[in-house]
Queue: 3 jobs
Job 1
Amino acid sequence: MGTAASVRVGARVPVTRVEGPGARYALWVQGCSIRCPGCCNPHLFEAAGGEAVGVDTLLAEVRRARPAIEGVTFLGGEPFEQAPALARLAAGARALGLSVMVFSGYTLEELRARADAAVEAVLRVTDLLVDGRYDARRPERSRRWVGSENQRFHYLTDRYAPEIELPTAGAPLREVEVRIETDGRVGANGWPVWRGRGWGASEAERRPTGGAST
């Protein structure tokens, strides 16, 4: 479950508009024991990858981004495998007036059945939870931000409503952001395009992986 002092981080983006409602600080945790077949982030499976970043450091980044964002999003990897640290980070974000969105491969019922204090602490400060394992046999074709039809949105507070799940008129269902860093690295995050045979690249972009840099 990790420690409360630091998060094993695979990637992070200070301001993104494709990882939940509005502009958000996005954090991809490193490590996932679920390892859904077909996951678009297999590079985040190994718990030993990425880097350990202190919660205080991450919260300082969130604070700096705060004027430009409405919330934070935790993805992975599996966020609840680092629940003690993420509980602190999420509580700090909420104290700044920001919303908290979490993606988990575990269902809400599985998380609550653990009776784990750190898991409950994360849930208490989560506004929007997206749960469930990715099922490549059941691709999602209408809702934003989820990969398969079995995955569910849980509105744990009244901050958001189900209307956010559908794209606005004229807006694409799947979006990708591409960033060119000052050192020449290219980073991409967002959601793949459904091609009929699986999730794949759009005509202009490679298949995106959350927060990955090449």
Job 2
Amino acid sequence: MFALVTLMTLVNQVSGTPYIPGGNTSAGTDCSGLASWVANAAVGRDPYSGRFHTGNEESALLARGFKYGTAPNALVIGWNRGHTAVTLPDGTPVSSGEGGRGVKVGGGGAYQKQFTHHMYLPAELAAPGPAPAGDPTIVTIGNTDAPPPPDPFAPPPPPNPFAPPPVEPVVAELPPPPNPFAPPSVAELPPPPLGQPVIVEPAIAELPPPPADAPAPAAI
């Protein structure tokens, strides 16, 4: 939204100047000249860049983005064939030529019964103004850009000479896997069925071979 301070500053600068028909300088102006200055400043134009009069006020305000009718907390301008006045967004009326005086803060404003036309400036079309004193301002300090991604081809950093040595994990030794071809041990043999006698075969001692020079036994 346009800054009310900007509009009030403009009006205060020319307030008290005389009513000058067709005037378009800070030395003084008429009612439509003041309305032109305020409308220009509200949309970001030079206040004295171009003025209108009550005969072309409707087309001039449409060219500046004004809409038909009135709206609360908006810049409103009212007029008829012979006079025009302004009401600022905070409700302050400003005029020129009312009561036999020149530019002033006061008067009937845009909502006078004599006016047959009203137009207002939507907030989204108004020029932004400077922040009023005391408003919080966000100040960015330093570089707020995100850090760049790491370079995959960059060399590794040098080792830290003061870093402790790495601790190697302790790996428990596992027993060797069993041989699938080894005969089963005695403990692994299944017990005989209950009630079946156990047959123990006697061990046969192996005799040593005869000496090489011993005579062969006689044939019978």
Job 3
Amino acid sequence: MDNSGRKEPSRSIGRDPYAAFRFNVEIDSLVVSGFSEVTGLTFETEVETFREGGENAHEWQLAGPTKFPSRLLLKRGLADADALWSWYRDVMDGSIVRKRVTIMLLNHAGEESWRWVFRDACPVKWSGPEFRADTAAIAFESIELVHKGLALGSHSGRHWLGFFRDLFR
């Protein structure tokens, strides 16, 4: 109970799970707005199994290399700003410019709570809108990025990905 005699809720707003729709995207320290979807935050550690001679009760399973099985996909409404298209067009022209892409998850107050920093991202696919005269849908563009791993990020001011620092060098 609080000081007024009311029973406190079992969960406060600070302990609720974060809403997936509250996020920002930075590309080389510039916040890029309007993204409706970010997917591909997937990391997987391969498991190597082997049998030991004379040991029939079990297999040994060892953690192997970590990989990124999917590409980072950024999707947003198409507008006059053509930064994503220009970045991909440069790649098509042979000028590959790798950039740091940061995904920041925000809490209920709009403050950063989680951060994923992808090193040396490079666009490998750009998709434009699908046109249909029978709908009033928003025109979207998307860009798929490959990257060289997850760099050190922070969680509420604490370093939470320190174990990735040496893994992805």
